[in-house]
Amino acid sequence: MSRTKIEFAVQMTCNSCVEAVKKSLENASEIKSVDVNLDTGSVVVDSSLSTLDLQKRLESTGRKVAVRGYAGSIAAVSIIEAGDKSVQATPDVCIIDGTVDGLKPGPYQISVHEAGDLSRGCESVGDIYHPDKTCSQRLYGNLGTVKAEAGGRAAFRLEDDTLKLSDIIGRSFVIAEKPEENREGRRLACGVIARSAGLFQNPKTICACDGVTLWDEVSKPRL
Amino acid sequence: MLTFAVLSTFLLYAFAEKSAVVNLSDPSGEYNVTGNIIFTQLDNGIVNITGTVTGLTPGNHGFHIHNLGNLEDGCTSTGAHFNPHNLTHGGPTDTIRHVGDLGNIVASNEGVSVINVTDNIIALEGLHNIIGRAVVVHALEDDLGRGGVPDSILTGNAGARASCGVIGILNDE
Predict the structure, then answer these.
(1) How far is B9 from chain A (nearest CA, A)?
(2) What are phi and psi of A164, to 5 degrees?
(3) B36 shares contact with chain A (CB less than 8 Å)
(4) What would be the CATH architecture of the domain defined by B17-171?
(5) pLDDT band at residue A90, thresholds of 50, 70 and 90?
(6) Is the ipTM of this complex over 0.90?
(7) Chain A within 8 Å of B154 (Cβ-Cβ)?
(8) Separation CA A164–CA A162 (nearest Å)
(9) Taking CB atoms and an 8 Å limit, are B166 and A192 in contact across chains?
(10) Is B64 labeled as catalytic in the residue annotation?
(11) For the segment A121-130, what is each residue's pLDDT rounded down to a tens digit?
(12) Best mutation site among A195, A196, A206, A215 for testing chain B: the one with the most B CBs within 10 Å?
């Protein structure tokens, strides 16, 4: 498994908080290193765990937690329903890390489609992306299958050595029902794949526009 | 003359290479500003911007490309104006401006803004590529850097973010 560095913003006020945060990330062989900075409220974790796993561990300390950035030359994010994130970790492998809520339990197809046009919802995003020049054996944008558990949540962390993040920014991410006999499954949700902040590129905790703090945003219920 | 106008419009699109689209919405639910805008990059590098935004208050509204397309925390998480050359804020015709400074859009008394402008700074490829970033429509007028308050040269003092969307690929032939 490839490791990625993810930067979290964690609401910390004192040294005992730093200890609690470190403790929440102990005893996991998937975590290589943890770097906590009390002054900037930043926690950088180098691991092969999913963002959701790490966020749950950090939230178990009772503190507010938000994702601030992903390591890599570029990072991207696509927001559908409860959100999906993908990040390019190394030049050779693309890590797709995400969570989708509100599904019926069962398998679903995830894919990258050619257009980022949501003017008619998921109908206007075109076909699964497959550039003419590609030498991949599969449909280039076909990321495979993910499974929704009993609570309706599909959480996944896939590694893909075909996809290049620079080729898919501005296109769209789609989750659909499993295809049947070469017929595409019904598209359930989609989002445009957008540029996201890398490590330490997102130091703000207050939005200059309306004075809303990061922690106010984190406290809002997600629709 | 009419024939000429029709023909030139046809030529604009016939030689268009790349296009991008943004579907604007208001994740906060406070402004209910929505819209659809298409960006078409012509062979000479100029980008044509056409579309409609509705639900606005009458008058001018700041219209910018923000650095990130991340809508995780609504329009807040799209970052600052797209500014790869680290310049101060300005108007679309100024030489000193952010790449993302597209000035204002004007809403009618009914709150509708019909957009049909061009810009020769933004692009759909290369260093000034706006694809994957966000369009943000602001609640207030962009003072184009001339308002004289500290925020003028940073943001145009255009107030809250009333609507936003990720710029996606429409056609990359």
Answers:
(1) 23
(2) -115, 130
(3) yes
(4) Sandwich (2.60)
(5) low
(6) no
(7) yes
(8) 7
(9) yes
(10) yes
(11) 999 999 999 9
(12) A195
CA dihedral A202, A207, A212, A215 (to 10 degrees): 10
Interface probe with A: pick from B169, B171, B173, most Cβ of A within 10 Å: B169
* Residue B151 three-state SS: helix
Domain A4-72+198-219, CATH among 1.10.1040.10, 3.40.1280.10, 3.30.70.3340, 3.30.70.100: 3.30.70.100
- How far A216 CA sits from the closest chain B CA (Å)? 10
Dump the DSSP string for A39-87.
TTTEEEEEESS-HHHHHHHHHTTT--EEEEEE-SS-EEEE--TT-EEEE
- Which residues in chain A are closer than 8 Å to B53, comparing Cβ atoms? none
Q: Which of B61, B97, B101, B143 is catalytic?
A: B101
A102 pLDDT exceeds 50?
yes
Residue A43: which of A30, A29, A58 has the closest Cα? Answer: A58
Alpha-carbon span B55 to B121, nearest angstrom = 28
Decide which of 3.30.9.10, 1.20.120.450, 3.30.450.40, 2.60.40.200 is the CATH code for A75-195.
2.60.40.200
The model scores a pTM over 0.90: no
Chain B residues touching residue A115 (CB < 8 angstroms): 21, 168-171
- Selection from B40, B45, B39 nearest residue B65 by Cα: B39
Give B2→chain A minimum CA distance, Å.
31
Closest CA to A191 of A94, A101, A102, A118: A118
Rounded Cα–Cα distance for residues B142 and A22 (Å): 45
> Helix count (H) and strand count (E) of chain B?
1, 9
